[in-house]
# Entry
Amino acid sequence: MTSLKRSLESDSDSTNNFSSKVYVRSTKSGKVQKIVREVYLRQDIPCSSKLCSRCRNTAPANAAGVVNPFVLSDKPAGTKEYPHGHYLVPDTNALLNAMDLFEQSTAFYDVIILQTVLEELRNRSLPLYNRLIGLTKSEDKRFYVFFNEFRLETYVTREEGESINDRNDRAVRRAVQWYNSHLAQTKSKKLPTVVMLTDDRGNIEKAQAEKTPATRLRDYVSGLENGERLLDMIAESQEKGISRDKKAADFLYPEHFSLSKMMTGVKNGMLHQGIFNVSPYNYLEGSIKVPAFPKALLVLGRDNINRAVDGDVVVVEVLPKDQWKEPSTKIIEEEAVTKNENADGDEGEDLVTEKERRALQEEVKKTHSTSTEGRAQPTAKVVGVIKRNWRQYVGHVDQSSVSQSAKQGRKQESVFLVPMDKKIPKIRIRTRQAGELLGKRILVTIDSWDRDSRHPIGHFIRSLGELETKAAETEALLLEYDVQYRPFPKTVLDCLPKEGHDWKVPASTDDPGWRGREDLRPLLICSIDPVGCQDIDDALHARPLPNGNFEVGVHIADVSHFVKPSNAMDHEASIRGTTVYLVDKRIDMLPMLLGTDLCSLKPYVERYAFSTLWEVNANADIVNVRFTKSVIKSREAFSYEQAQLRIDDASQQDELTQGMRTLLMLSKKLKQKRMDAGALSLSSPEVKVQMESETSDPIDVKTKELLDTNSLVEEFMLLANISVADKIYQSFPQTAILRRHGAPPKTNFDELSNQLKIKRGLELRCDSSRALADSLDACTDPKEPFFNTLIRIMATRCMMSAEYFCAGTQAYPEFRHYGLASEIYTHFTSPIRRYADLVAHRQLAAAIDYEPMHPAVRSRGKLEAVCKNINVRHRNAQLAGRASIAYYVGQALKGRVADEEGFVMKIFSNGFVVLVPRFGIESVIRLRDLAEPEPESTFDAENYVLKTSGSRELSVELFQKVVVRISDAKDEATGKRGAKMELVKVIG
Amino acid sequence: MPLDTSTYNLALLRVDGRRWNELRQQKGQLGVQPSADGSAYLEMGNTKIQCIISGPNERDLSKSTSSASTAPTSNGAGATVAVSIMIAPFATVDRKRRGRNDKRLQEMQTTIASGLAATVQGQSYGPRSTIHISLNVLSQDGSLLACLINAASLALVDAGVPMTDYLVACTAGSTSSYAAADEEADPLLDLNTQEEQELPFLTLATLGATDKVVAMVCESRVQLTRLEGMMATAADGCKGVRDFLDGVVRDKGELMVQEGAIGRGEVVSSMDLD
# Structure
């Protein structure tokens, strides 16, 4: 009789080229799973060295019979130690600590990445893994992934009692040995050495015992030509691995919980998870929004913040109720408090320095003295970090942390980097070039933040240039907001039409380009844009119809004709997400050729367009709407001012002007309807920087003027977006790309409505957008026209931000756009500068059966990823634009002193924030800036009044009008040049 | 956690170290359950199936109301094929029991039953008889349907049920997902669980080494342009599976001759097919 068992045993001898991998993993829900995977071991995995002819003969082909080209050079670069050239085999730690090094263009060529290392890296850090995959795809870096775990000779089984790390190290060594013996068989005269690159001391020792070539990362780098410079880029943390003999008593911070402990805690409601945000006014105060509490949880003090950095996903524990507090009413800046800290001497310090303690103490006193029963917010402490959101930070070296001797010598020392972003703590970096880095904008990254270190530890990546130079500041800004500003790669440019600027709409209507297009060339179409606009997305027309109605058309550049889904250009555009407008620079989403020429609806030439055509009656009610791809010829490109002049000029009676007047008339009606439906008119202090035309130096700042024609264009764009949103949602209820603006939670307005009630006796209602719009309209001060705008600016800051989403992810009522008071909304009208619009174009084209739906636009998972990315990019682009304006306002004010009116928009116990509408800037005025010595003060938190006495007697309250003297000054904390305000007098 | 299928293009190696056109390791055995009319055990990689045949029996109406799916052979003039699948709770990574009325299982049962009904020469039994095929999944690691069909074929041979040829099946996938719209995607043969979860795939059953397609199941989205390549690859895989099953049967025959269960002369006259 045969049994199952016997049959398996008898087969076991044939499995020498077969193995299985067994591992255990635990799922999110805490279950333990045992996974068994097969591993097929083989001998046809090539070494990919151009020296080796044997491997070339056996190299595998893909289904099309194409063999991957061999990567590693036959004449690799040599160093002092390896004169015949060398291939590098980094281990996982080397990549984890020094990925920036591997991306250098001066060194690190011919690198073999082992599968073992790739897998380990993927487990440890997905972003690094992705960067590495990117490197392996670049042709000139010559990175080769060798699947050592599948090659019979290099496969290593884990021995009993061997840790997984030891096993992996052994696998790396085995692969290095194999490579060396394999290459030796090529009988090449100049035989390159295959070198293991590691920082693990144990691993090096074992390698030496086995006579495997190995070197430490640091030794290797210092042997390179420009080693000095590269040395700084090695992460700090690994140094420590060698001398970790600190006692537990030295730990400054409480330990983080283990992941499973946090998971269980979050699950049973004991702990809460959320994103950690630092207050822009007080670096020792953070807040976390969690679903369980209506108000954000406060995290106060270094101890409770426990090494969380702005943006991290953290888990917090709520503190007992008697420790709940109000949010701080005090400005605490890291720079001022920790000014004299020594970057090198970390030992023997308490976690919370005396100064910090005093700063916080006053807080506590205040909360205990006043009866703030209802207003106390729950406080919490961070017990662990789920996911660090560390990125690269731009900043400058704190001058005071650099020792005098370092300015000449090459001694390595620790210095503090002060990030531009005030929410990020100081970062300690070790460098040999401290002297050179002073006064430069530099880019760094955080490596770790251990319990025994007060500040996070990072390393230097590169220098952007002198502080306050235009190039350095612009690049700093782009990096800080993660804007992709590199030139378009060749693969992207290859996707452009061959004809270049000579491309024209084909003359013959039989051309495939004309398929399904309507010929709208006879229509009198024009475009209205800001002065000097080159990427013209939209053009309009209106004409009366015989039945007394009007035909109105919005024509949008047909970008989807040129950017086909899933090619390199589309991919690049989807990553960039949006065009970023800085004061002096535009970072395009699409290559110039398309953005400013072929797609741009320039006047007097024929262009492809995607048209939305409505029939509307005289009341601006839509009778019907249709969409079509078309060919148009714009008659004129107006600026807003020109258009306004032309409309106002009664002597102009031609058809084009009449059409524009019709548009204006209809747009006013549309606007009225929107306002009646409860659309909000929000405000932000927008200013425009005027530049000298030749040197492009800023000379003046103007507030933006709004003309009727601005609102004309805006109304029709909104109308087009809404019509398109309707259409694509009908056709694709699951995948349509839409834009929503959530209703803000009521608690967001608590502070503002309380302030209004106490200071002005006004009521702010926010149960619906209509109520809010009406009560905002009522917030006026007859003496002060700007008061209303001020309230609108403050209300805008309480709002949620609008976001793109995929229709299937939300229920229909959630589609609402709160600000525009529209049921459904999308972006359709600016495909040249926004990726979302491009997607909407493709979906609309499919909805009107112009072309079949491309799978990439149909896959919901993919679209969700796109939405997520463009939401982030959109926000960053806005922030970058604002930061750029702020920088140029600072530059324009350089060397000038001006007295301007301003308004108090936020008040603290030791200072207040003033907004100056003329320049659109806001700045903090601290008590200690008022007079010397710092005046005594009493702060009435209930009534938002700050009274000073002693050296200067003043009484400042919220919403008050003040006169400030603005001069320019370099902010030592951030290295930014900005406006510095001094209080001249208080009005009223 | 090992790498995922996106690394295929780095070295043309799949997640388990195979090339695009390689089958997994297979093991097969006939007559594993001597008390049954026919039985077989088949492994394709870590997918392990035991199949037991009972019948042809006279149709028992009370039995046929169970969850088995049935299909008549020879246009209703022959025996009925009834297939029931049981997945052991320990067959998957997560230990779980499956109900008898699992719709996915029923669909697989129907596919197998109608596929086999087209292959089995049922007219020799008469319309009132039923061949019960019961399939036990002991371990599951991708290509389940294909493996079930192959195991059933093997067990039917053991039971001595006349068939036109082996009914063999195999899966084929494509190296990039539907949404990637990558024109250079390679077809892949014989997918395991991880690949099935990440990539589009189809199951193709052919009649022996011919290219006659008996069944094809594709539940994932795949570009039409890639389908042809996937089908051709799967058909090639089916040939490989057929050769393997045939080898198992011949080895078993040899063994029976050695053990004296059958006389050598009989074998030569009836099994001398090559």
Helices of chain B lie at 8-11, 61-64, 103-117, 144-159, 193-198, 224-259, 264-271. Chain B has a mean pLDDT of 86.
